[in-house]
Amino acid sequence: MTKTKTFVRNTFSEYYQKQSFSIQPPTQIEKREFGFLTLKEKVMIRHKSFKNAGGLTTFIQTLVPSDIYYSSAYYEKPEEKMEEKSWLGADLIFDIDADHIPTSCTKIHDTWVCTNCGTAGKGVLPEKCPACGEQRFDEKTWPCEVCLESAKVETIKLKDMLTRDFGFSPTEMRVSFSGHRGYHLHIENKEVQTLDSMARKEIVDYILGLGLETSFHGLRKEKGNRKSHVLVGPTLNDTGWSGRIARGTYEFLHTATPEELEKIGLKKKVVETLTQHKETLEEKWKEKGPWGVVKNVGVENWRKIAQCGVLMQSAKIDTVVTTDIHRLIRLANTLHGKTGLKKMEVPITEIEQFDPLKSAIAVKEGTVTVLVSDAPEFRLGDQTYGPYKNKQVELPTATALLLLCKGRAEVKEE
Amino acid sequence: MSERIHARAVQRIEEALLNALVSTQSRNDEIEIPSFPVAVMMVASTTDTFMKRRYALAEAKRIYNLLKKENDKNKILRIANAFNWKTKLVNDKPPYEFALSLIDYLRNSTRLQAIEWKLVNRVVDNGEVYLTKDDTARLLEEEVRSHIEKKLDWKEKFELPQNVAARIERLKQAFSKQKAKIQSEELPKEVVISAFPPCIKQMYNETGAGHHLSHIGRFALTSFLINTGMTTENVINLYRSLSDFKESLTRYQVEHIAGGRGSGTRYTPPRCSTLRTHGVCTNMDDICKSIHHPLKYYRRKLRTMKTKTPIERTQK
């Protein structure tokens, strides 16, 4: 093992040995499948099961895995092969990852290299390599503050929909920082457990606003007096998606530039009308909304605008995680192999003030000297570090661990 | 008396098989009511899942037609409660008359294809979905259908009196002609790539060119190809051009999807709405708008291609 790997292993091991590490076993631990990614070979060990938290802790302390997962599902025989496990139900889980969210940092801290031709770049991963068209990349990501903040904003939107629309109580929901670039939200409740994959897909589409037709939320032409038609639409205080469409439309029209309005397919004349009457339109939200207030802007145009509002109000969850009823998900209080930070539960009422780069620090003592190849300026705890380029520095263990796990630094070989 | 019950039971099944709807007879409860369990027993005794499904559907349709005309909302409420639905009447949200718990709504609505049934197109508030009377009737139809299907799913063998068994046998035979008509026609032996739906065609071309697919994309493509009759060998070969191709792993996965391993079930591709959720759906065309499943697209496209001359077909 290299010095770096040995150091990471020792630090992980120490964390799992220390009393400060308190395992948070999932409910009904005996019905869950566990999976472990090994530190050295990066191999997944699956189909493990434990009768109690003690057995699990001992296993972790012996193996010292890089990542620890458990199944959102409950099984009669969790240690059997997939087909023979006997599925009993699964918690409803959501994953929000900065990877899926367009952010203002434009992911400039991420780098990629095409595995085929070696072309490299910075920022959001391209769909295809601009040089050879291949779609396979080696990626180096970074959990930056902007990314983490936008993931948090999405999580709050999600929480809001789950509470207000779906009626889940805060006591059934658990929110955690994933330890890397996002948040997880678990719902444990007997009724939800039995939902099949199709039902969960409908929940996903709801959260994403996918397949939403504004006509079902009141945006339509109605017969007015005499022969004329009037355009009506949802208002700010409506329940469910209707109100969200209204609030999103308000937000979109309030912030959009004329260029952005043209970009969504509105004609120049329509954009001019909207810009000219911006104030009047905003005033109208106090009553029945801006729908049909100005000529030139017909129902089809309003639909396009409202769809942008839908996009702003939707929460960008990972579609696969929620619909997969056999999903393995990171165990709370365990370390993330890509950062050395821990998955950390956030009290649902405190999420807005939560600082993941402070609270999720798992190792609080010691320093180590590392050779940093490349790192942007970043904060961990109250301290700001970097930027570093091929530099030898002595850092607090948690900071060094983050760089080592991210492959941005090495422990100096003597 | 028992002869008349028996006759009505047979009629129920006949109506289901031929018209896909059990008729509503003039009120003669003494015959009408017992004829239902008798019919259920008769259908349950067959091992024909297609027949069972069709019977359950036809009985459920009958219920829907009755509920649609029912003016007493409380009666509908009581029926819903009999199925343990968490539901209540609402008076202050016209045109809605019922509020149903989210879970009960999802349990009964996901099979309905029209976009108006998508949860995202519903008024959802504090764990309840608002419904009109007709919506409620339609969802109850689904509940009744799955309720009857469960009754029909009889695992143990049982014997019926010989004359009854003979009547069922006759029904089955009369139905087999009908069934052939209903069940989709056989697919051609060779795989017709030009009849692939746009999403599959794109993934097929990209994989052939060595590009990688998402997990769900790979599953959709593989299961689609297997179901159109491509051999596992040819499917495996398709993935050979990928830079990280591992024969043993690919073989395991393809054979698993084809039903050669594990549970032995052959997987079908996800339906269109699922592909949309995961961003696999691309370049929708006119046929896409009228179907809900990629295999349905394939069948329909094949049919339209048949009506064209061979020259037109090769040009496509």
Task: Describe the protein's topology.
The complex is a heterodimer of chains A (414) and B (316).
Chain A: H1 3-17, E1 34-37, E2 44-48, H2 53-63, E3 67-71, E4 73-75, E5 87-90, E6 92-97, E7 111-114, E8 120-122, E9 137-140, H3 145-164, E10 173-177, E11 182-187, H4 190-193, H5 197-208, E12 220-223, E13 229-232, H6 240-255, H7 258-263, H8 268-276, H9 278-284, H10 299-313, H11 319-323, E14 328-330, E15 344-346, H12 356-359, E16 367-375, E17 378-380, E18 383-385, E19 388-396, H13 397-405, E20 409-411
Helix pairs in contact in A: 6-10
Chain B: H1 2-19, H2 29-45, H3 49-69, H4 73-82, E1 87-89, E2 98-101, H5 102-109, E3 124-125, E4 128-131, H6 133-152, H7 162-182, H8 198-208, H9 215-227, H10 232-238, H11 247-258, H12 272-277, H13 286-290, H14 294-306, H15 310-315
Antiparallel strand pairs in B: 1-2, 2-4, 3-4
Helix pairs in contact in B: 1-2, 1-3, 1-7, 3-6, 5-6, 10-11
Features of this protein?
heterodimer; A: 414 residues; alpha+beta; four-stranded antiparallel sheet; 22% strand; B: 316 residues; mainly alpha; 15 helices; 59% helix; globular; disordered C terminus
Describe this structure in words.
- The complex is a heterodimer of chains A (414) and B (316).
- The model of chain A has no long low-confidence stretch (mean pLDDT 93).
- Chain A is built from 13 helices and 20 strands.
- Chain A is 32% helix and 22% strand.
- In chain A, strand 17 (378-380) and strand 18 (383-385) form a beta hairpin.
- Chain A has a four-stranded antiparallel beta sheet with strand order 2-1-3-14, with no helix packed on it. Chain A has a four-stranded antiparallel beta sheet with strand order 6-11-10-15.
- With 414 residues, chain A is an alpha+beta fold.
- The longest helix of chain A is centred in the middle third of the chain and has 20 residues, at 145-164.
- Chain B has 316 residues and is mostly helical.
- Helix content of chain B is 59%, strand content 4%.
- Chain B is built from 15 helices and four strands.
- Chain B is globular and about 70 Å long.
- The N and C termini of chain B lie far apart (64 Å).
- Residues 312-316 of chain B have low confidence and may be disordered.
- Chains A and B meet through helix 5, helix 6 and helix 11 of A and helix 5, strand 3 and helix 12 of B.
